[in-house]
Amino acid sequence: MSAGSEMVLDEAELATLRESIADVLTSECDSRAVHAWLDRENDLGSSLWRQATDLGWLGLSLPEADGGLGLGARGLQLLNAELGAHAAPGGFIPTLCVAQWLSHVSGFDQREALLGAVVSGEAAFAVPALLEEAKPLAQSADGGTVSGSLEVLGGVPEAAGTTYVVVPVASGWAIVHVDGVAARLDPIEAWDLTRNLSRLECSNAPVVALIPDGDGKAGALLGSYVALALAADSVGAAKGIALRTIEYMKERFQFDRPIASFQALRHRAADLFIKIATQESLLEQAVQCLDNGSPDADMWARLAKAGASEAFVFVAADCIQLHGGVGHTWEYDPHIYIKRARLNEALLGSNRALREAAMGLLNQALDEGRTTTELNA
Amino acid sequence: MSAGSEMVLDEAELATLRESIADVLTSECDSRAVHAWLDRENDLGSSLWRQATDLGWLGLSLPEADGGLGLGARGLQLLNAELGAHAAPGGFIPTLCVAQWLSHVSGFDQREALLGAVVSGEAAFAVPALLEEAKPLAQSADGGTVSGSLEVLGGVPEAAGTTYVVVPVASGWAIVHVDGVAARLDPIEAWDLTRNLSRLECSNAPVVALIPDGDGKAGALLGSYVALALAADSVGAAKGIALRTIEYMKERFQFDRPIASFQALRHRAADLFIKIATQESLLEQAVQCLDNGSPDADMWARLAKAGASEAFVFVAADCIQLHGGVGHTWEYDPHIYIKRARLNEALLGSNRALREAAMGLLNQALDEGRTTTELNA
Amino acid sequence: MILEHKDDLKAFREAVRTWTRETAPPERAHEWQRAKGPELVEVQKWWMDERRKVGLATPHWPVEYGGAGLGLEHQIIMEDEFARGHSPGSEMFVISLNHVPATLIPHGTEAQKKTYLPAVAAGALWCQGFSEPAAGSDLAGLKTRAVLDDDHYVVNGQKIWSTNSMYASQCLLLVRTDPAVKKHQGITYLIMDMDTPGVEVRPIRKSTGGSNFGEIFLTDVRIPVANRIGEENTGWMVSQSTLASERGVLSFNYAERDMMFLVDYYAKARHERAAWLDDPELQREFMTLFGELQSLRQQIRVLLREPADAPTWSMLPSLIKVAKTTLNNRIHSFRIRAAGLSSQFIDPAWRAPMYEYLESFGMTISGGSNEIMRNLIAERGLGMPRG
Amino acid sequence: MILEHKDDLKAFREAVRTWTRETAPPERAHEWQRAKGPELVEVQKWWMDERRKVGLATPHWPVEYGGAGLGLEHQIIMEDEFARGHSPGSEMFVISLNHVPATLIPHGTEAQKKTYLPAVAAGALWCQGFSEPAAGSDLAGLKTRAVLDDDHYVVNGQKIWSTNSMYASQCLLLVRTDPAVKKHQGITYLIMDMDTPGVEVRPIRKSTGGSNFGEIFLTDVRIPVANRIGEENTGWMVSQSTLASERGVLSFNYAERDMMFLVDYYAKARHERAAWLDDPELQREFMTLFGELQSLRQQIRVLLREPADAPTWSMLPSLIKVAKTTLNNRIHSFRIRAAGLSSQFIDPAWRAPMYEYLESFGMTISGGSNEIMRNLIAERGLGMPRG
């Protein structure tokens, strides 16, 4: 199964696109707006979702044939890094990743309808929160319905339209329409208020479409997209909170000096950026592999998610401390990021399991006589 | 098997004893002497061994009945911390630990002869370098001789007298006399030049004495003494190189200031002492348990060795960096300590295995309804 | 009944234990363990009332001020037994029962002692107004201004991080009375009634959403000169008595409870066959944390044995401060990873991993940030010069 | 023969590859991999001679100075192919082939260029005399004194960390000619013949026992004024050209070789069924390091793409410097723990874990210590003010 896609924008155009996304988020989703969202004082979640639809963000990565811009993994990375930097609320990751995945898997007939509905903002997706460990739900004898329950990332209250869930079944992945009766999503209250977690309850819920997955490669690809999106979110968010923290340190005076001038703190700040830069480049590796259709993409995406989410936890935690007393108050930003970081760390599968899976994939590549580290020079 | 011993010196007397050991080492085994030893320009190894014998250090821990001072685990901790602080060369750990162990196990008739010879400096011991993982050597049908090979810590060239090795056999532990024929010790060249590592080759070597060990408790106790001694060496050595490094930093000027005045470095120095203090107290826990004959001593001793040797590696490595350019030269002290640290880390058994063993012991205690954390308040 | 055993430590311990078990049976521990906010205030007030009935509220106070003159060893036994008995905490009364007498007894007037000490002994909850938003770690940089007007000081300014200030009746307040001199001079120490006009307390929300400290806004607050502790402009010196009153007994209690919690956590994990028990990496990490927590308990015992009036500065409190707060953070970080995704769901259970983890970030700052501690260790402990 | 393909990068690469394989067959790699000290000098001299024969010693030099005027992309291809071919290294000639022309071409006299550039192209080994024992990271704080005496400078002082100075024929030397002015002024740049009377080199032993740098003691060393590069007291400015000549190509080569080594290491571990492969903690740690090394290779590629004359200061070289040196240390620390006790035995094998680990501590200091890098990242990269 190839995930290859050709790059349709050059570097300068990508930079312009990134800036345009950043500009929108800086104006619509700044710290004040996110804080108001946490306190239920605005509708940032749905306004952002509407705006994302209007601006075509939901189709950024999708093939042009599906009404998208064809940016592939590069698009996922670019958009999610900016969403992370601004701690944007919403169910972007599951919707973007599932749509991207559906554009690359074959064997079902709903592709056009589902992807069209995503681009137009009428459909949103949810995926198993622990996709890598998800156990198949029970299917009816004819395979037409599924029953059981599952914790999912998504269930997008801000999306006006229809929500679908990707559900693991014995033969592959079932797409289930959340109709509120046969398939229900109950929100799970979580520490991170910028994401939606839900419990899916299916009772003979009709299967809208089925993605067969005899060899597990389809599921692995979906996992790779989620991994990449979480890694991008983590890298972007880590950089976002680190930069905000440094700005704060320049303004905050102690002992008649800005705390940014204390060498012990300056060195810690430098270390944050060293860590972030490393994970940014590991993510770059995963993006290139996914966009090149490299057979090693699954390995690199998992390593990227593990590394980036851990770095994000480290950075966000140190940013609390670098803020001093206000660092762990509700009114400042660090707590928003540490909660998002801890959730990113837990999603998809534990980083321990992801690294073990990556080693399995490395072994497989070596057994097949393939090098996994080839890079142009 | 109880390792309990009553404390014969009060705190002030222990402090005096510690100072007297420190004084001897400061005068006989300072940095200059150890460097000369590394360059084979003096006989520090044997002169120190002789002095240790003369001053009764080898009997410090042994019961008074065996000609010792009766200081038990406290004595092991106190002496080895000072030896570590000065990076003293010599086979103290195996000799001290085996002697201490022999004074606490029963079931063999050579105790008086062997312990007497240790106190008088006529006998030295070696133990399996990876005691926790040591596999039994082959025994003759009547059990009278052993054959096989084994890497050991010890084989003390500086000791004038006889060397014995503790050898694992199916039924327990055999004491083998290194006669150079049936039992031979070949030195292993190692990075740490302050310790002796050897390969034991036994070919029908006669068993001098046998310590039966049906339930593994005797071996566990020997392991606890070695763990404790390595932990004490590590804590003492970490403190030793940290203090030397701080002295260097006060004298070394850069940008017209002592480098000790740079806040980033001062904070790192503080962190070294925070780490050391933690391990010092964990070691204290192990000492108390061993001296009280607590059934949890085996657990705490293993945790102490794992923690202390890791902290020693961390501290010694950072001291290289805190020295700046001279840190990794032969002429300065840090390399002596990092090599000792890395060896300590590897000895007895990997710290990973020791912590797993400790968890096994914790589970056993819980299964027996015992608390392992009781402390007087 | 309990105090009569004060000369026999063993009997004293036995009496405290029996009383604790009867008064706050461990079977009811869940009631106070889940209390937060005002509910927690109620629990601790109730518990302090019970302690008062048997002379265990202020037994460490001098006899002349209504105490029983018990020593540190009695306090340790009490805290030990309270911890073992899973009794309610008393940290809300630390300022009332420790800071107030430590300040008033050496520096207060007779009238102040007679007014305030009995009230405190009877359950008055005090807070402390030392920190200010702009000052942070630079405590002496405080700017809250007090101007003498006849027999009152008129105070304007703002205090922050004032624990339980929203529930307190009085406040130990530091103000600047002379802005012209060096910062450590020119500070005055006042007692402020919290119901004085112009005092407004706004709770500060923490990252968990809860609040246990507040900001105090002071607008033309009139405080009688009679409420001054010590002379004008000697407040900094007086405040050293306040700050020195924490002797590690509270840390001791916390560490004891933390170990009991960790042991229970592990027993529960075994009982439930938690998945992490099968992961060697997590096994080792747990044992490392377990070892370090025991080590901390050992360190605190050494601290408690250190003479309060030792001639040389001791590194130990600073070493312990950094070690215990970072260890606490690491333990809960471990629990988050061990639990996996479910740790990210809001869980009202006592000591839920993510709740404790977030709370732990308060500890690494409050009571002297870990950065200040490292400065102290390096400068005073290791003799490394300031830059 | 190889250079004729310079306009077709693909063919150029192919030609370099073929030549490399034929000249230094990978089957013989163990010969140069185990070389140390003088033996290593011989290996690298031999290899440089071979490169010279086919125009690959100085192909990046301008044509007018005997080079082929090849660009960065050619250098990268060469280094890539050399790394892939497990060929001998060339790091000994970094100063000769990069620092010398980068300094002489813009700042040297015609006579200097005519004398020294052909000699360097023919294989002369140069060293650099910048660092001094007392100066350390404060390079401009150098104290080695040069006094003009007729048409010679008389130099007294001491240089340190001078790589391969014991094998070098010439030295790029910074001296102080005016001690009265600010430290960055008053420095002069000289070329010193290493066989001038009064020059004494003592190798510095490293923690491994080996030596690849020395201390240079200078006693009344007479250096002709004609050997001065640039004007008197402009040496600091001139030295910036020297220091700017490192363009990441060497880091690139190292990182490529490091990844090949790590991949081989893992394949060998699998082949030998190394015990650590069964430990999930070590598995994960290996994969983390493996990922970070690949990430470093990505970073270095970005660095190589950065324009040399970019208008704004780039954090990237400093970020890479800290990341690569600490990663290197962590990789070998991992290998030590994975191997267990046997890692502590002296092992003459190529890249034995403890040997590499000890060597890695040199990297975190040399070429601008990681502490200096953190200062730069914070100050120039993040705009955090100096204290």
Structural commentary:
The complex is a heterotetramer, with two copies of chain A (377 residues) and two copies of chain C (387 residues). Chain A is of the alpha+beta class. Chain A has a domain at 217-367: Butyryl-CoA Dehydrogenase, subunit A, domain 3 (Up-down Bundle), CATH 1.20.140.10. In chain A, 51% of the residues lie in helices and 15% in strands. A five-stranded mixed barrel of chain A has the order 1-3-7-5-4. In chain A, strands 8-9 form a two-stranded antiparallel ribbon. In chain A, helix 7 (217-251) runs antiparallel to helix 10. The longest helix of chain A is centred in the middle third of the chain and has 35 residues, at 217-251. Chain A is globular. Residues 1-5 of chain A have low confidence and may be disordered. Chain C has three domains: 2-89, Butyryl-Coa Dehydrogenase, subunit A, domain 1 (Orthogonal Bundle); 126-234, Butyryl-CoA Dehydrogenase, subunit A, domain 2 (Beta Barrel), CATH 2.40.110.10; 248-381, Butyryl-CoA Dehydrogenase, subunit A, domain 3 (Up-down Bundle). In chain C, helix 1 packs parallel to helix 4, helix 8 (249-271) packs antiparallel against helix 9 and helix 10 packs antiparallel against helix 12. Chain C has helices at residues 9-23, 29-33, 38-53, 72-84, 94-107, 110-121, 235-243, 249-271, 280-305, 316-339, 353-363, 370-381, and strands at 126-129, 145-149, 152-163, 170-176, 187-193, 199-204, 213-224, 228-229. In chain C, a hairpin with a 2-residue loop joins strand 2 (145-149) and strand 3. Chain C is an alpha+beta fold and 387 residues long. In chain C, 47% of the residues lie in helices and 14% in strands. In chain C, the strands form two sheets. A four-stranded mixed sheet of chain C has the order 1-4-5-8. A four-stranded antiparallel sheet of chain C has the order 2-3-7-6, with no helix packed on it. Chain C is globular. Classes of the chains: A alpha+beta (377), C alpha+beta (387).
